């Protein structure tokens, strides 16, 4: 019986030593899992932000492209009107005087009927 008690005590001491040795490893692994989770969360937030910024950039590029197209159209219209003005000044478009006069109405900034 004495031997059994000694064996139980030795086994218990060995289990306690093993637990004492494994505890730091278990804590380190738990800390590593927690750290990995935090890394993943922050990386996901950065990716979400990157996607939002990319969408904003695409939208801005689209708006800029539309504005550039509008500017080119306006510039082309201005050049057309400038060339018509030069034709009228030279007397080369007298046949279009009536039509062009009707296009412009007093008090309006834009041309009617393009």
Describe the model.
- The chain is an all-alpha fold.
- 84% of the residues lie in helices and 0% in strands.
- The chain has two helices and no strands.
- It has helices at 2-90, 97-103.
- The termini are far apart.
Summarize this entry quickly.
The chain has helices spanning 2-90, 97-103. It is mainly alpha-helical and 114 residues long.
In whole angstroms, the N-to-C terminal distance is: 114 Å
Number of strands: 0
User: Whole-number radius of gyration?
Assistant: 42 Å
Strand content: under 5%
Please state the overall shape, judged from the principal axes of the Cα atoms.
rod-shaped
Number of helices: 2
Task: Describe the protein's topology.
Layout: H1 2-90, H2 97-103
What keyword list fits this structure?
mainly alpha, 114 residues
């Amino acid at each position: 019986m004495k031997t059994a008690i000694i064996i139980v005590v030795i086994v218990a001491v060995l289990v306690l030593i093993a637990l004492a040795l494994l505890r730091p490893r278990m804590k380190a692994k738990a800390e590593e899992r927690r750290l990995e989770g935090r890394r993943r969360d922050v990386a996901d937030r950065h990716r979400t932000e990157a996607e939002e910024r990319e969408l904003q950039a695409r939208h801005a590029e689209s708006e800029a492209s539309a504005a550039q197209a509008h500017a080119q159209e306006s510039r082309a219209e201005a050049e057309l009107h400038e060339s018509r003005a030069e034709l009228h000044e030279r007397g080369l478009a007298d046949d279009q005087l009536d039509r062009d006069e009707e296009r412009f109405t007093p008090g309006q900034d834009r041309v009617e009927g393009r």
